[in-house]
Amino acid sequence: MSEPRPGWLFPALILLVGLNLRPILAAIGPLLDQIQRDTGLTDSQASLLTSLPVMLMGFCLLGAARVRARLGERRGIALGLAAIMLASLARWQWAGVPALLVTALIGGLGIAIVQALMPSLLRHHAGDRAPAMMGLYSTAIMGGAALASFAAPRIAPAQGWPVATGIWALPAALAVAAWWLASPGSAQSVEGSPAAAIWANRRAWRLLGFFGLGTGAYTLVLAWLPPYYTALGWSARQAGAMLAALTLAEVAAGAAVSFGVGRFADRRPMILLAIAALLAGMLCLCLAPLMLAWVAALLAGLGIGALFPLGLIVAMDHGESPAQAGQIAGFVQGGGYLLAALLPLVAGLIRQHLSDLAPAWRLMAALCLLLALLAAGLRPGDRLSPRGA
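The structure corresponding to this sequence follows.
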């Protein structure tokens, strides 16, 4: 009944969607000092610009099955992209603390809807290519963050920070149109493991902790790495360039995972290598933040960039069907994002009370050891089932 679609179309759509899921967050960090000067935003309030969307993403993702049943994948992803577009457009038009916080919530809701629906759609439409497609999707997310963190401090001097934080409505509008016109239909709803079985499964909580701590490293550097370096005397452009470089390292690591993950049934060697890189990057930030700044960015970016897709891929590995994989990914991402949202908030409180972010990097270094312990138990071939509870 329908014409066959070219093979590049689905990956291109996934790439375009992923690119729009982080600019609304990543554009803030390099401009935070200027935003705080103009609006009176405190450090704890500033941390909410990252923590609120991530928390909302977590709550929404915990209800991924309900979101999927109510909206469907095609319509739901279009709705999520539209919310991101509207939040960005509102930032373009209105400055001030209330507008920043409200748009953080709206944009976070849009991101959450997309991320709740994408895993099951990938499993259904990509089949055996789902791990590689998940790697492409994760890499696109990080690529969008790199673009925003590099471009925002270059747009702001000429156009102002509201334009620099809101101009991302334009690519979001393109993504809405492209997705609605060319995306595949929603998969038929298929029952997977009961949600209660996932909540009661120890392995599911291990996956949640692993994804949450790895993603927490990402939200921590996204929110506070540029302000850390502007406090050390760097300009907003330099700090934004460093965050962009870190994010490009994430993209490179995510691409490597996307192309290489299918060759390894046991994901743990790749995971432990990524944790080691992240730990080394955190130690560089603690011990020699100026001398080893770019080394820290490279190492932390490689570690975070590999951990993010690996966390999703390992979670999806535990599903016996696309629907079950979607349920597991929703649980892992939902609880994981709630956990990840705490780290920027803690760092904001540390900065507000100690005027120093170095303790936040030391905390993340310690959490890398916990990440390694969690990863060691992720044996290949395991599945979640009521018997595994």
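Residues 322-354 form the longest helix (33 residues).
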